[in-house]
Amino acid sequence: MIAQGEEVYALAGGEPEVDTPDFIKEAAIQALNDGRTKYTPTGGIPELREALSAKLKLDNNLDYDPKQICVTSGAKMACFQAILAAVEEGDEVIIPSPHWVSYPEMVRLAGGVPVIIETQESTGWKMTPEQFEDAMTPATKMVIINTPGNPTGAVYSEEELRAIGEVALEEDILILSDEIYEKLVYGETKHVSIGSLSEELYNLTITVNGFSKAYSMTGWRLGYTAAPEPIADAIAKIQSHTVSNASSFSQYGALAALENGQPFIEELCGEYDVKRQFMLQRLKGIQNIRVVEPMGAFYFFIYTGQTGLKSLNLCDKLLARYKVASVPGVAFGYDEGVRLSYCTTLDILNEGLTRVEQFFREH
Ligand SMILES: Cc1ncc(COP(=O)(O)O)c(C=O)c1O
Q1: Among 83, 149, 223, 244, fewest CB within 10 Å belongs to which?
Q2: In angstroms, what is the span from residue 357 Cα to ligand 1's centroid?
């Protein structure tokens, strides 16, 4: 529709609308000009792995030696490599829904079986320890925790993570902790890394993170895993035999991001908090949807069950009649909801929400 010249109010994005900061671009350009255009070590350039080791200690209270860290081509590959490294044919992987679109497919590609647990609005779209326990079977190998979460923006508290961790410890279930939105948390909310909560949990956890969301570097394809040594070795082997290494000059950009990115993150986070609160007020005023306040990421997952429409149909209608792009809940394993994101300008958000209000008045 955009290509045909139509105005579309895109509330469907999954990336910051602003450009990568110049100082990051300049570091990558400098790397190119310096001839950093060759293969790098499989796990990443040593400076970046060291900087990540220091970051994980400082921000997350996690002790990872640089050799336990693998710099990957995006957090997506980080998740996939972690799953490939740990999941064997027939292993079950517990995934709370609404979940990020790619987890079940990654598990299937590894020969595993995704076991989807439907979370509720009443628990803020978070899996309870009881749900986790009930879903466990002798074949359970891994659980995926994504906090702050896509598509719900849910952030697990330390207490909630401890309770989930206790269940995982009962049967030594591995935890894939996808923390890609860690820097985007609002109000008093704190991001907690489950691997930092005890030595036992550290030994079961693969921490995934990346540069895409916090530094607006989605196109640079840069993420990382940090894991106990045997798993870290397996992840590095998979990388060695598939992508070889993350893009060389991207890694130099990432190093600059880690060194000087804090002011950018603070500004981005402040702007998103304004948009989040604006959107919360607007969505709360709509009668036939329900909304849980998201404390992280840049999404709202709204409950649309009362409309009686399937999510894909709803999104199609919203796009065709009101020119608002959104993402159907079915993509996240939950058909009675829709994801709306606020990673766009306030003007587009404002007009898009006016149209969303009109749509729900009629449905
Ligand atoms: C929960 C989650 N994990 C991982 C990723 C992948 O991030 P990257 O762009 O670094 O591959 C995304 C991107 O949308 C995401 O939402």
Answers
A1: 244
A2: 29
Distance from residue 180's CA to the centre of ligand 1 (Å): 6
Pocket lining: 114 vs ligand 1, CB cutoff 6 Å? no
* CB distance 128 to ligand 1 below 6 Å: no
Q: Do residues 92 and 72 touch, judged by C-beta distance below 8 A?
A: no
Instruction: Tell whether ligand 1 has an atom less than 6 A from the beta carbon of residue 150.
Output: yes
DSSP one-letter code for 20: P
Q: Tell me the CA end-to-end span of the chain in Å, nearest whole number.
A: 23
Show the domains of the chain with their CATH numbers: 9-19+263-362 (3.90.1150.10), 38-260 (3.40.640.10)
**186-225, pLDDT tens digit by residue?**
999 999 999 999 999 999 999 999 999 999 999 999 999 9
Four-CA torsion 162, 168, 171, 172, nearest 10 degrees? -100
Q: State the Cα–Cα distance between residues 193 and 206, nearest whole angstrom.
A: 10
Residue 178 Cα: closest atom of ligand 1: 3
Stated pTM of the model: 0.97
Distance CA 343, CA 349 (A): 9
Do 8 and 1 meet the contact criterion of CB atoms below 8 Å apart?
yes
Distance (Å, rounded) from C-alpha 219 to C-alpha 223? 11
Cβ of 75 below 6 Å from ligand 1: yes
